[in-house]
Amino acid sequence: MTNPDGRSALGGLWNSIQTWLFPMLEDEIGELDEKHRQFVAVCEMCAPQDSMRAYRWIGNGCPPSDRLALCKAFIAKAVWDFATTRDLIDALRHRPTLRRLCGWESLGDVPSEATFSRAFDAFAQDDLPQRIHEALIQTHYGDKLAGHVSRDATAIHAREKAAAKPKTPPEPKRGKRGRRRKDDPPVPPPDPTRLQRQLQRDLKANLADLPTACDWNGKTNSQGKREQWRGYKAHLDVIDGDIPVSFILTSASVHDSQVAIPLAQMTAERIANLYDLADAAYDAKEIREMSARLGHVALIDHNPRRGEKIEFSPAEARRYHERTAVERVNSHLHEEHGGRHVRVRGPVKVAAHLAFGLLVVAAEQMLRMLG
Fold it and tell me: Distance between CA 43 and CA 352 in Å, rounded?
């Protein structure tokens, strides 16, 4: 998106924040430190007010608490990495600057913890943070061309009981060994795999097919030791500049490759890119076929599967190194924006909690590119 004078819309927004919004706020509420400036800039970029139409009071019953202020408060929770909602409320009550930036003038205006919980539940059910994130990407990056999309998943630890494993159907009885008789019916073809079915379906159907209940999974860490966790798995697509553009939450036990095609479909609706970068867990012909359908070049580390490993060419290996962007975003989410503080329960609320964090990561990275 470009203005008539040739400046990018993102650059123009950042210029107006620095030259107009910060001075105006400091005249009104006092000097802003670096963290408050970061929060203000993130809110301006995300524009949550554009998604509040569904929460406006229509005159029935008691007027609800300001949903825009509550939404900004949850963004502040991700910016400051508060571990719990109680910590957020405590900060709002003891930090007048933060309270007024969210939209509450006095201490008595800050809602109770129950109101925060009800508002978060409504935001989660409506996918509000996911929709704000999508609008942010499409507004500030939708008309640009991204060089690389890096794809990976990260473990999300949850504080809830794991769902019971579904009972596996009994295996069909094996026929007699030996050559099939002439009058025997033909052997039915095997059922298509999830990846094969995903190629024939749209994004909505593919998302509905993915398990999302809390369960267990394990992996081998860099030291060769087996680690297990209970919870979920967050699957991310990240573009150059360490900007997360798409995100899907699944059960912890879902293999990374099972989410690659829905992620590619989701990302293709938001931005255009040239290369898809992924590790050996995504080495499947169906995933490569989806990249080809979208007009992308798939650079996926080859999985030898007891065969001979096919190495990248020197040029491909250098480009594949860009995949570290998604690892940095995973670390950024965990260390600074709520990835390690999942206190809510259920996939819908966990996804909303992580989406607020990824929303902040995306806005911060865009601002960092301007700085």
Answer: 17
Which pLDDT does position 174 carry in this prediction? 65
Here the tokens at position 143 are 């008309």
pLDDT tens, position by position, 278-300: 999 999 999 999 999 999 999 99
Cα distance between residue 139 and residue 10, in whole Å: 9
Question: Where do the structural domains in the chain lie, given as residue ranges?
Answer: 9-126, 145-163+194-344
Give me the residues of the chain with pLDDT under 50, please: 1-7
Residue 327, token pair as written in the block = 């690892």
Q: Are 88 and 313 in contact (CB under 8 A)?
A: no
Q: Are 103 and 71 in contact (CB under 8 A)?
A: no
How far apart CA 134 and CA 247 sit, in angstroms, is: 10
Instruction: State the CB neighbour count (10 A cutoff) for residue 193.
Output: 11
Residue 141 and residue 19: Cα distance in Å, rounded? 23
Upper half-sphere CA count for residue 62 (Cβ side, 13 Å): 2
Distances (CA, A) of 276 to 262, 282, 296, 326, 346: 14, 11, 7, 12, 31
> Any idea how long the chain is?
371
Q: Which residue's entry shows tokens 């608490």?
A: 65
Helix (H) or strand (E) holding 148: strand 145-157
Write the Ramachandran bin of 247: left for phi over 0, alpha for psi from -120 to 50, otherwise beta: beta
Q: Single out the residue of 238, 249, 308 nearest to residue 277, CA to CA.
A: 238
For tokens 């394990």, name the residue: 218
The CATH-assigned architecture of domain 145-163+194-344 is: 2-Layer Sandwich (3.30)
The string of DSSP letters for 322-359 reads GGHHHHHHHHHHHHHSSTT-----SHHHHHHHHHHHHH
In degrees, rounded to 5, the angle at the alpha carbon of residue 254 between the alpha carbons of residues 304 and 167 is 115
Partners of residue 275 on adjacent β-strands: 148, 297
Strands 226-239 and 297-300: unpaired
Amino acid at 224: G
What span, in angstroms and rounded, lies between the C-alpha atoms of 94 and 85?
14
